[in-house]
Design brief:
Length: 359
């Protein structure tokens, strides 16, 4: 068990008079135990007990040989998973449940333990995971450094003989070469008008002269995620495209520059959104400015106009403004930033100024 992390959760449980907690999110279980398992439809749960009678419930199909510092409760497919779970919760008057536990397990235990009160504990674990410790910071730096290199290599391979799907294939090969463990999300490669869809899917499109190319990509290394977007151009971009690019770039730089402890996420969002609006493109910036990241690409918390949460040291999140002109093109620029004690550290160092390829 990761004792420091578990203690933080137990302390928050005590503050809210929660006796036991069911943690079923595989990434939160990994965060607290060091063991990552994706169980599919089967039950996998860590029971945290304020009396420290912790248990890890796992199907025999997934043998765990290492000592994780927690009692393992092994069950089989023929066992009643809900009863196994209920039997591990004998001391809980108030039981916390995270957002991942399926109703097929939760509803039966509510019926079995009808004297217990069940509450959502997700926010406790999510907020603790928001603040990265030193080990996590180093892992995030490593993942982002690899993503910088992979993106640089990928951009060098882009040409008008390759479709968007072909570029994704190139990225798979680059990840293999660099030792990246896989995608942290399905990459977005958008040529021209396809880039005007913020989450456009790579297709069979080929480049035309002047096309903007959105490259939004991330990889996993040692279980931690990276995420970055660069927009480049195939041959000479139009004056309008260059203008839009420079507006997005300036907006992104403005938002990054104000990151420090105490600055609210809504103020970071405003730093880029207000500038884009001032330049006449506000209606075409259609999404929040960023999201938190770590074990998962999208973790709890966002950088949006309605989030008044202040930055704290150890938080890592994206800053990724964009302008999307339907039927024409899109531009998005994204870095990951780490909040430090007195400012920020940009985890991405790859050039984000205007780049033209194919000349």
């Amino acid at each position: 068990m990761k004792d420091n992390r578990v203690t933080k959760v137990l302390n928050k449980m005590a503050e809210q008079n929660i006796d036991q907690a069911i943690i079923s999110d595989p990434y939160s279980i990994f965060y607290l135990t060091g063991h990552l398992l994706h169980p599919g439809e089967r039950l996998f749960a860590l029971i945290l007990d304020r009396n420290k009678n912790h248990k890890l419930l796992v199907n025999a199909l997934f043998p765990i040989e290492e000592d994780l510092g927690v009692e393992k409760v092994i069950f089989n497919d023929t066992d009643d998973s809900a009863k196994v779970l209920a039997n591990a919760l004998t001391n809980g008057k108030t039981i916390g449940v995270d957002k991942i536990l399926p109703a097929r397990f939760l509803l039966p235990i509510i019926n079995i333990l009808n004297d217990s009160k069940f509450v959502d504990i997700s926010i406790i674990v999510d907020k603790i995971r928001m603040i990265k410790d030193e080990e996590e910071k180093e892992l995030m730096r490593k993942a982002s450094k690899l993503n910088d290199k992979a993106c640089e290599m990928l951009i060098q391979k882009i040409n008008d003989k390759k479709s968007e799907k072909d570029v994704v294939k190139d990225l798979i090969a680059i990840h293999e070469e660099l030792g990246v463990d896989g995608f942290s999300f399905d990459p977005i490669i958008g040529y021209g008008a396809n880039g005007a869809n913020p989450h456009g899917e790579p297709g069979d499109r080929y480049l035309k002269e002047g096309d903007a190319i959105i490259v939004d990509m991330g990889g996993i290394k040692d279980n931690y995620c990276s995420d970055m977007t660069r927009t480049v151009f195939w041959k000479q971009p139009s004056e309008k495209a260059k203008e839009v690019f420079e507006i997005v770039l300036e907006a992104q730089k403005r938002a990054v520059s104000i990151v420090k402890p105490g600055v609210r996420f809504c103020d970071i969002d405003a730093a880029c959104r207000d500038y884009i609006t001032e330049k006449g493109y506000g209606e075409f910036f259609t999404h929040r400015t960023g999201h938190h990241i770590g074990l998962e690409c999208h973790e709890y918390g966002d950088i949006s106009s309605v989030n008044e949460t202040p930055c704290e040291p150890g938080m890592i999140f994206s800053i990724e403004p964009g302008i999307y002109l339907p039927g024409e093109f899109g531009v998005r620029i994204e870095d990951l930033v780490l909040v430090t004690e007195d400012g920020y550290e940009n985890l991405n160092s790859l050039n984000k100024e205007l780049v033209v390829v194919g000349e």
